[in-house]
Amino acid sequence: MSTLRKIDTRIPRTPLLWLAAALVFTVPPMFGTLSPWVPALFLVTLALKFWMEPKGYRLRLALWKLILTTAALAAIFFSYGSLKGIEPGVSLIVVLMSLKMLEAHTAREFHVMVMVAWVLCLCGFFLAQDLSIALCLLIAFALLLVALLQFHRGPSRNTWWPPLRTAGILILQALPVIALLFLFFPRVSTGFRLLMTPSSSAAAGFSDRMSPGGIASLASSTEVAFRAEFPDGKIPRADVLYWRGVVMSAGAGMEWRARQAPAALSPSALRPPAGETTRQRITIEPHGEHWMFALDWPVQPPPGALLAPGNYLWSYQSIRKPRRYEVRSFAQHPDKNLRQRERDALLEVPPSISPRARELAQSWVAANADPRVIVISALQFFRAQGFRYSLSPGEYRKNDLDEFLFERRVGFCEHYAASFATLMRLAGVPARVVVGYLGGEYNEFGRFLLVRQSDTHAWCEVWLPEAGWTRVDPTSVVAPDRVNLGFDSFLERRGPSAETNTGAFARGWARQPIFTNLRLAWQTLNYTWDTRVLSFDAETQEAFVANVDLTKVPPLQLSVSVLLGAGALYALFVGGRHFRTRSREDRVKGLYEKFCRKAARRGAVREAWEGPAHFANRAMTLLPNESERIGRLIDAYLKLRYSAQVPAGVFEDLTREVGAFPRGKQ
Amino acid sequence: MFAKACHPAHRARVNNAADAFTKQICEVIVGKADAVKLAVACLLARGHLLIEDIPGVGKTTLSQALARSLGLAFQRIQFTSDLLPADILGNSIFDRELQQFVFHRGPLFSQVVLIDEVNRATAKTQSALLEAMEEDHISADGVTHELPQPFFVIATQNPQHQIGTFPLPESQLDRFLMRIELGVPDRASERAMLLGMDRRAMLKELKPVFTPETLLEIQTAVRQVHASGALLDYLQDLLDASRQRHSAGLSPRAGLALLHAAQAWALMHDREMVLPEDIQAVGVSVMAHRLGHDLDQPGLSGRTLADALLHSVPVP
Amino acid sequence: MKDRSFTLLRPARSFAGLLCVLLAMWYAASSQNNAAAYLLLFALSSVILVSIPHTIRNLSGLKVTAESAKPAFAGDEIFLPVEISNEARAPRHSVSVSVPGSRGDEERVDTIAPGKGARVMLRFPAQVRGEHEVGSLRLATVYPLGFMRARKKLGARQRYLVYPKPGGDPKLPSGSAHAQQAKRGPERGEGDDFAGVRAYVPGESQRHIDWKAVARGQALMTKQYAAEPSGLLDLDFASLRLSDPENRLSQLTLWVIEAERARRPYGLRLPGAAIAPSLGDTHFHRCLRALALFK
Q1: Which chain C residue has its CA at the smallest distance from A155's CA?
Q2: A638 touches chain B (CB under 8 A)
Q3: CATH of range A349-431+456-508; options 3.40.50.300, 3.90.1300.10, 3.10.620.30, 3.40.250.10
Q4: Whole-complex ipTM
Q5: C90 touches chain A (CB under 8 A)
Q6: Is-contact A14 A150, C-beta < 8 A?
């Protein structure tokens, strides 16, 4: 039964419920990035609205609105210390939406609320872009469609499925358009750039300075640093998965730092050497810094980056959104020359360095001046003198180098790398510290390597005559498994002492095959989202569009596929129509309607209320040439629709007569 | 509704009888073929008939012609404002010889009852009549008396709003299957009437067309005319539409009336199935007097409303 | 009539807001080069795009029928009952109907199931007296999302009558010139001769209730007495002293209403037409009709 009502200004309850459900799904990205009171306020007002709506309460007084808005502005200012930036901006939108909800009650305002909710989805994407967040926001987006549909369907009772279904159909139909727009819509970048990146993401990963405790603090972070695919199918062994991040060639003792804005290496240094290469396709998570990762050693920088001295990749722009690039690494260092000026810089040690360390280094030189032997002596020193590897080595005080080398002898990779490089320089061997990642978790489903922040590692490189730069990892001497197994497994080997029992228990559960598989599958999805969607930016699109050149496809193949596609669509359309009119009665009706359409074209238009016999009589007088056919046709139709017993063949008669009825000229 | 269609030969015989009946009445009532056919359909569908028109257009003549041609016993009652229920139903009179009350049957105890100017009588008398029409029996002094079968009431009335009339209660109007109007005859028919025989003389010469058996046979055949699902859809659409549009829509009884009348109409046109056109043909006569009480639309007559209904509900 | 009208599409009122949201999304996405934001932008615009055929389809298969409208006085409102029937296979939602150019509001139907119909009562001001015709009705819809509005005109002929606007002096003229008599307070127009009874109308004087009938268990009836010829009102167009014929019609209309209300038989005399004195609904509308159609 149809329902009839005047154009009602009040928002009915069902669409409001859908809207509320949608709004709940916009909340997750807010938690964790915004001040906690903002999403809390949002949820509270949402609940409040549902308490108020049936009672007819709402925020009416302009004064109250003004006071609340001012209070919200002040609260945002106090929470963030400013009103600029993305978090205060999004908070502002959220708070204003909350107030709007309390106030809104007319149909027009419902549309406004839905549109603000869409803006909230957008804000969500600026706060976080994980797959989980994206799914939440997609659900919110779909629920908003449902809310609109329900709103226009009017207050029908207990019908949650039809609007949901229509929304689903709309989205399904929109999918191809979305894909086309996503792939081909020109992404003009506007000249004026808003700084809208959340400040929190800049904190991910290591910084351009290394000091004791810096990397150890990352050891517990499971955040993804980047993912790497090996398109050639060669996956390097675990012990050579040294992902180069930044090279720190300045500093001494325990404090090392990288160059601020490195210049590009001279093109002569970029001559690719002979030997084996490993191709990697890397999707990097935003970390707010400039470096990009590659296995040892990259020679040619990907677009948008340069190769800095020390052979590491340096992006021109800081990495604030997922980025995907391809890079080729060589097993051998390409540059066999070290100029004197560079050599001097790499031997620089401040005079304030501890005399004991200087003495130790000199003792090795005195024994044998060959740099190779010195390196072995130093490693021997770490191996023999009871050094231990620990995630929590405790704090080192002012005289940290001496304390580490001669007293406590407990440290993390950064301690070993820093002290080893210092000792080498003191012994007259050019050395530098490299910070990056070691190892990673291989995902069988997605065939990619997942590298987390917990895989952060620091190691050394020394310059040896003839061999050139050579990687030396002092940590491998102290804790060889750390290198061979990867960090997670390494911790596990070390037994319960490394962690609490409950942690081990939980970890044990998480190692069950089903969970592992689920985890890997989820990672794969995440990876696909990151690589296929998030990293598809203006530059990638440009490259993609340049690649998609229809002129390259053979014309025959192109036309055949277009024809096949169109044919499939048409078949689907016709099939759908046919499927719907299956029953005999419907088909009879359909034939009669077809006859009416044909007759109408020739001037005999049936009124909706007109019975078939009456119409046939009229049509016979209007179209005297066809009167016999109309007579036979209508006779068959009347028998089929109204008679008790239908003789065989009447349906075929009707089909034939309707088919043979001539179309109008027009 | 889905009774098997009757045999073609049988149908033809039934149809011939109905045709002869119609023809005979048309000889008396000149130029009113449509109204006569409707009246015949009404009787064949076992319905009571109400003829409404201004005085002098032949209402009484038609009703008498119908009654005589049916071949049934008939009585004529002229309703007046002082007529009492007992005058038509009958009285209980004390019989000295038997020492008890004896019920003396009134004129209503007849197979065909012609009632002239039914709206002249008071509401009480009308109610007694209509109750009898509905129940096919009457109650007097606590005793139930069966009316003879078949039982037809053919009533005539003047249009409403004439001074001194009591409009029939709407709930009771429903008991007439059809209400037909005669209207002024066209010029040619009127001329024929002026030149022709005296109508009353003609009435006296009318011979019954049916035997009671034929009538029964026809009436049985009417109910066997097939009404398909598609037709019932249309019928129900009409009922639905009337209920949506009018405060007093068509009742289920009205739906049944419409179906029976349409079946009779189809049979008279020698068809073994009912078409939407049959419903449309009898529609106004069956529906008008049931729709004429719409409180929302006092300015519109039932005929207008019924006509609008038929011209707006699409045939599925 | 077969409708050959086409469906017009234009942005609805809320489209401006949507455009702002889309622009904001585009600006934010492009300035950040944020693929996820682009995805949202494209999803929203694609859904709006694919909703357009749905909007257009939402009007197909609909038929409108205007039913007979009660006459109204000029300046009042005409109530036009309209039936919208859905001959399509799918339900139709949120369809509004209006009379084009009538300055009346549109009426909305939320849902019409397939094969069913819905009735709405369209109201629009009755402007000029006379017989008018509604030639077509306008159907419009913003379903499914409310950002695009499709509309089309469908032929639906229906005539309606607008009576002249009642105006002037409410006091009835004092009968015909030759029969000035019998001032009997409010119960004018009633003679002494019993003429019958009619149903009691609440508010009438109880003096003439047929109490005997009540005692017999019948409904309340008022006894009517035949009016004396002297009480007859003769409303004559020519005898009015107003100069503007429209004003005269207004005055006559008012008197017809007043006379009917006072249950005083009245007749109407217009140039070229005369209606004999009488009373009652039929007579009342007959007189008003004559006044409405007066040329």
Answers
A1: C110
A2: yes
A3: 3.10.620.30
A4: 0.82
A5: no
A6: yes
